[in-house]
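Review this:
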Amino acid sequence: MTTAAPSPADTHAHDTHWTPRLWGTLVVLCAAMFLDALDVSMVGVALPSIGTDLHLSTSALQWVVSGYVLGYGGLLLLGGRAADLLGRRRVFLVALAVFAAASLLGGLVDNGALLIGARFLKGVAAAFTAPAGLSIITTTFAEGPARNRALAIYTTCGASGFSLGLVLSGLLTSVGWRWTFLMPVPVALLALAFAFKLLPRQADDDRPHGGYDVAGAITGTGALLLLVFTVTEAQGAGWTSVRTLGSLAVVAVLAAAFLVIESRTAHPLVRLGIFRNGRVARANLTAVTIFGSYAGFQFIVTLYLQRLLGWSALEMAFALLPAGALVALSATRMGAVVDRFGTTRLLPVGVLALAAGYALFLRLGEHSGYPTLVLPSMVLLGVGFALAFPSVNIAATSGVADEEQGLASGLVNTAFQVGSAIVLAVTTAVITAGSGGGESPQAQLDGYRPALLLVTGVAAVGLAVTLVGAALERRRAAAPAAPVPDYRYPTGQNVADAQVLSER
C-alpha cells in the first residue's frame, strides 16, 4: 500500500480562503482546460492556409478538425473511468505530456496524413486530461461554496479558451499557421512542470478496486468513436446512404451491447445507476444542447461573416471577442453567484440568454451591420455561457461519490463533444439543403436561416430541460417532511424506533 501526500482538500479546501498551493493547483488545471478548449476552435481560422501549404483537399481539411473531435469525443468516457481506476494525478500528467508532444508534432509535419494523426492524438490526450482535471477539482474542493468557486473559475477558463481561440488563431495565422500548433507547447510543458509539484497524490485505498470492464470499454468506446465518425462523414456520404445508415445501425448494436454489459458486470465502466441522480441526468442532457447549439451557431456565423459579408478572419475573430471577454471577466465572480442563486435558477436563465442570442441573429441580411446584428447576440451569448457553463458542470458532478467523480466528469465532457459533433453535422446538412448549392447572397441566406432556426430549437430543448428540472427541485423542496413517529403511545415499531433514537 502506498501512502498519499497530504491533499489540499484535507485542510484548506473546505472554505474559500485558499493557500497559494491550492491556487497553484487550480491554475495548473485551468491551463490544461484552456488549452483543450483552445485547440477545438483555434485551428478553424488556419484551415485555408494549411490547405494551401500542404495541398490538402476540402475533405482532408475537414479531418484536421474532425480528427481532434473524434479522439476527444470518442474516448472521454474511457478517460474519465481511467482517472478513477488508475489515479487522477497519474492520468492527468501522462495525458498532458502526450498533448504537448502531439502539439509539437502537428507544428512540424509536412504531410497531411501526419497532421491529421497528430490532431487525433491531441484529441485522445484531451479526452484524458479533461475528466481527470475536473475530477481532481471535485475531489480536492469540498462540495459547496469552495467547489462552486473552483468550478466556476475552471469552466469559465474552458469557455474563454473556446471563444478566444478564434482571436488567437487570427493573430497567429497572420504570422504562419504552424504557430497555431506550436503556441500550446510551452504552455503545456510549463503546466506539466508545476503539475508534478502541486497536484495532490491519491492513496491506493481511495481508488476503486476490482476488475476492469474490458468488454464495456470496447463496446462503449467503439460506439462513441463510430457515432462521431458517422455524423462527421454523413454530409459527404449522404444521410440516407447505405454507408451512413449501416454505420448508425452498428452504433445502435454496440450501444445496446454496452448497456447490457454495464447492467450485468460487477465493475462497470459506467455504472448506469448514476443516471438515477436526476440532476446529473438533466445536466448531461442540457450539456448536449448548450455545446451543440453553440457549435452550430459559430459555424453559421463564420460562413456568414467571411463568405457573405467578406470579412477577414481577423475581423471575424474580433467580432466574436465580446462573448469570450464576458465569460473571462466573470470567472472569479461566478462562484459567489452560484452560491447565492443556485444552479437550478441560473441554468434556465443562462440557456434562455443563449436561445435569445441565436434568435436575434435570424435578422441577418446581405448588408447587416455589426452594432445592430452581431454585437447584441455576442453579449447575450457571453452572459449565457457565463451563467450556464459553470452551472451545468457543477450540477453534473454534485451528489456523486469521490470514487465516481472521474466518471461524472467524463460523462458531461462526452455530452459536450457528442452534442457538438451531431448538431454541427445536422447544421451543415441544413445549410447545404437550404442553399441548394448556390453561392449567391440570397442562396446563402436561404441556407443560414433554417440552420439558425435549428440551432435556436436545440437551445429551446435545453431550456425546457432546465425548466423541468427547476420545477422538480421546487416540488421536492415544498414536499412535506416524513412524518415523525408519535412516541406518546408506544406500540411495537414505535418502541423499537424510540430505542434506536435513544441509542443515538
